[in-house]
UniProtKB/TrEMBL annotation:
Organism domain of life: Eukaryota
UniProt keywords, alphabetically: Methyltransferase, RNA-binding, S-adenosyl-L-methionine, Transferase
Range of the intact protein held here: 140 to 467 of 585
Location of the SAM-dependent MTase RsmB/NOP-type domain: 6-320
Keyword Nucleotidyltransferase (UniProt): no
Residues given in the record as S-adenosyl-L-methionine binding sites: E138, D165, D185
Listed GO biological process terms: rRNA base methylation
Name of the protein this chain belongs to: SAM-dependent MTase RsmB/NOP-type domain-containing protein
Family, as annotated: Belongs to the class I-like SAM-binding methyltransferase superfamily. RsmB/NOP family.
One MF term in the entry's GO annotations: RNA binding
Active-site residues (renumbered): C243 (nucleophile)
Record GO cellular component, one term: nucleolus
Organism of this sequence: Saitozyma podzolica
Amino acid sequence: KSSTEVSARYVRWNPNVDLHRSGDWSIEALFSHLKTKGFERITEPVYPVTKGKFFMDPHLPDCLLVFPPSANWWVGDKWYEAGAVILQDKASCFPAKVLMKGWTQEEGECIDATAAPGNKTSYISALMSSQSRLLAFERSAPRFTTLEKMLAKGQCRNVIPRRADFTDSDPLDPEFAKVTRILLDPSCSGSGIVNRLDYLLEDEVDEPDAQSSRLEKLASFQLQMILHAFRFPSARRVVYSTCSIHAEEDERVVLAAVSSGIAEEREWRLADRREVLPTWERRGRPEEMGGDEQMAESVIRCLPGEDKTNGFFVACFVRNEETDGLQL
Ligand code: SAM
């Protein structure tokens, strides 16, 4: 099977629309709607998904629907037009899921540091039940316009979009005092993307000879973003993700971040495997993390072709609560 072949199409049900729009946009109503479209729900996952069938994804059973590769029922469909379903690759749902594990509304506020086009922002907003503030940074003007449209369509009413560079924000500004969780899904080479349906790539991937210097630049920028996030005084969970399969942008960036002075000073460390989709089998590459098996266990990889997703990487940094409020 070629690695560019797609064996499933993923559709995320967006509960924010049911919360804020008149009418019944519940998941049960979606199932009934799909019946009228000729789709039967089955309980056991089968790949490639059989024509006319769908099932709930075993890793995201409350919101992610899995369809056959040929499915396109959403084209012109009222559920899609209403933002009640969003085309989002399975792996691209993972960072928000890991970021929001154990979230309660009382905890505080969140930041999505690199938000456009807004798929992950919209999912985080849904996991916050569209309550408490979620600040969404995006530095590119045209992509910011796309983000605003997506947030409006998806009824993400707790999101405050901001057209700004995340690294220009002052972590000590009182407006960020309650921010406890930050998502970083920065620009990357996009080398893991095989299914482009739900992606808005920033630019095309370079020729191989230009690639290594480009990866170096990307890695340095990605590390700067993580180190900036580490400076937010109330932050206790930072999730880093890429749609790259290159260790230069994945394990090696994470290793540099945990080995940094700021990580040591503020006691940031990698979260235990239990915090990072423990049932997902494919973990990081120890050889890219100084041979540290435990560290590699705590991050996840997705491989196109093998995992029925785009290529993806997710790491979660956490910090001890007793260092809260430490001003740097
Ligand atoms: N999280 C998005 C989603 O799931 O829909 C995809 C994010 S995309 C990989 C990276 C985005 O970060 C791009 O839109 C890019 O313009 C933006 N970006 C890159 N550097 C940034 C920075 N320093 N501050 C804010 N946004 C930035």
